[in-house]
Amino acid sequence: MSLIKTNPVQFSQRRGICFVLSAPSGAGKSTIANALRASQKNLFPSVSVTTRSPRPGEKNGVHYHFLTKEKFEKQSTNGELLEWATVFGKSYGTPRGPVEKQLSEGKDIVFDIDWQGHQLIRNALPNDVVGIFILPPSIEELERRLRSRALDNGEEIDKRMSLAIHEISHWNEFDYIIVNNRLDEAIAQAEAILTSERLKTSRQQLKNV
Ligand code: ADP
Ligand code: 5GP
Fold it and tell me: From residue 25, how far is each of 18, 38, 89, 114 by CA, in Å?
């Protein structure tokens, strides 16, 4: 108490936080992740590696690092990936190096990965992960959003819809649930989670006590 009276309260730099956003495809997690990156200082994207082909407008090194199957296998065997999973028949993974560096520098990271990746990354970094699951307001609305996005062909959309119920069954493995009905409300809820998690006592260390 007396120390606080005479000295300004100072905290050591806290470790970064991994904010993992997961959702059935089409629920809006990329839209919410992009809004968070635009509104939040100190929030950086994790750029995954994948063996799927780029969609129109996707840039190598920005949206994903697009790899051949052979390169992906080499990275996973060499321990270069923090987690990896097969989603819709393609391989996806999180590069380990950038995540470890950013966390130690106190930088927060937002991940757009599936429920398997969330489980694996939580096991790998148990104190660093905050899991947020995004739900669509209904299955019908999920399908409407997938079709309106027009990035995938009909067959790909059917595949994603048939897996949606299974993905949704993992909702209770996450710390927070957001129903993405009105986009502005969903973004505000995600921002509130980031703010609270950043202020948690367990993440702070006082310098002058
Ligand atoms: P995901 O990354 O989860 O696959 P996207 O962020 O690409 O999903 O969103 C899928 C589609 O739904 C996009 O066309 C997006 O603009 C739209 N969308 C996202 N959130 C909402 C919302 N709250 N209301 C209406 N459309 C939305
Ligand atoms: P899309 O092909 O639509 O970009 O992504 C398909 C799914 O793969 C989404 O659920 C997305 O969250 C997931 N995904 C993207 N990158 C990764 C990753 O690095 N690891 C895991 N486990 N899933 C990922």
Answer: 20, 22, 14, 9
